[in-house]
Amino acid sequence: MTSPTPDALLGPADVRELAAALGVRPTKQRGQNFVIDANTVRRIVRTAQVHPDDVVVEVGPGLGSLTLALLEVADRVTAVEIDDVLAAALPATITARMPDRADRFALVHSDAMHVTELPGPAPTALVANLPYNVAVPVLLHMLEVFPSIERTLVMVQSEVADRLAAPPGSKVYGVPSVKANWYAEVKRAGAIGRNVFWPAPNVDSGLVSLVRRSEPMKTTASRREVFAVVDAAFAQRRKTLRAALAGWAGSAAAAEAALVAAGVSPQARGESLTVEEFARIAEHKQNQQQEEESA
């Protein structure tokens, strides 16, 4: 493999020139903040532990700052971009700046929330600077649809990073924490300053690492059934689980029966439970329904 030229990555002037040539103004609506620092994108690739045999999927490549850094290391990179202008321009940027690797790049012009297949080999890693406003749903969608993704590193708003990586009992532990943990071991993997973006956001950013569970969650309940319990438990955070799950279970008494059977106190609150405990609760609702049907 020919190594890329030292100036293949985009610097601040390159990003602004590209944006000006394309008539691109970063929009708040799409949460666009372009990375302008080559050291930062290389750090992201290192932290993501991208290997030479990895097939990486990137969501929201923008002008290509991170894409180029990924192509330096990975076997292949597939970028998913929703923006018409950015999607049209990215292949030419890759060809111009990294001609020896251009055949290892693919572009999917689509909303990542609607992507269900990708060209080429199955992705082994997801690395992305996710738009702040859709970070969690996009992340969960990609983990669900592409079980071949073993490692994920996403850059998100610092507050979102805290939520994703929060342990049970933490003040910010909630729906994103539990659902991410269904798929992976999740941890904070660093902080990113505001000055590496253009335009500079008014919030800090953080890196989150997700390593997929080597074995799927051991439960007879489906992902959908478990997530329904999670959503119900956190819809009314201040309520006990007996009260919060009443609608989900059909009544407070039915909720209490499922909780007791799962070994969870009816007086507990959602923020104290692990994903395994949510799965047990979902299983016991299943059991109740089966018993009622066979009675």
Summarize the structure in short.
The chain is an alpha/beta fold.
Structural notes for this entry:
By secondary structure, the protein is an alpha/beta fold. The protein has 2 domains: 12-212, 3-Layer(aba) Sandwich (Rossmann fold), CATH 3.40.50; 223-292, rRNA adenine dimethylase, C-terminal domain (Helicase, Ruva Protein, domain 3), CATH 1.10.8.100. It is built from 12 helices and 9 strands. It has helices at residues 12-22, 38-47, 65-73, 84-97, 135-145, 158-165, 175-183, 223-235, 241-244, 246-249, 252-261, 275-294, and strands at 34-35, 55-59, 76-81, 105-109, 125-129, 151-157, 184-192, 197-198, 205-212. It has a 7-stranded mixed sheet, with helices on both faces. Strands 1-8 form a two-stranded antiparallel sheet. α4 (84-97) links the parallel β3 and β4. α7 runs antiparallel to α8 (223-235) and α11 crosses α12 (275-294). The longest helix has 20 residues, at 275-294. It is elongated. 43% of the residues are buried. Mean pLDDT is 92; it is low at 1-5.
Distance between the termini: 67 Å
Strand order of the largest sheet: 4-3-2-5-6-9-7
Based on DSSP secondary structure assignment, what is the total number of beta strands?
9
- Radius of gyration, in Å, reads 22 Å
* Global geometry: elongated
Q: Tell me the fraction of residues in β-strands, as a range.
A: 15-25%
Give the helices and strands as they follow along the chain: HEHEHEHEEHEHHEEEHHHHH
Largest sheet: 7 strands, mixed
Structural class: alpha/beta
CATH superfamily (homologous) name of the largest domain = Vaccinia Virus protein VP39
State the low-pLDDT regions, or none: 1-5
Name the average pLDDT: 92
Tally the helices.
Answer: 12
What name does CATH use for the topology of the largest domain? Rossmann fold
CATH class of the largest domain: Alpha Beta
- Helical percentage: 40-55%
Oligomer: single chain
Protein name: Ribosomal RNA small subunit methyltransferase A
Pfam families: RrnaAD
Subcellular location: Cytoplasm
EC number: 2.1.1.182
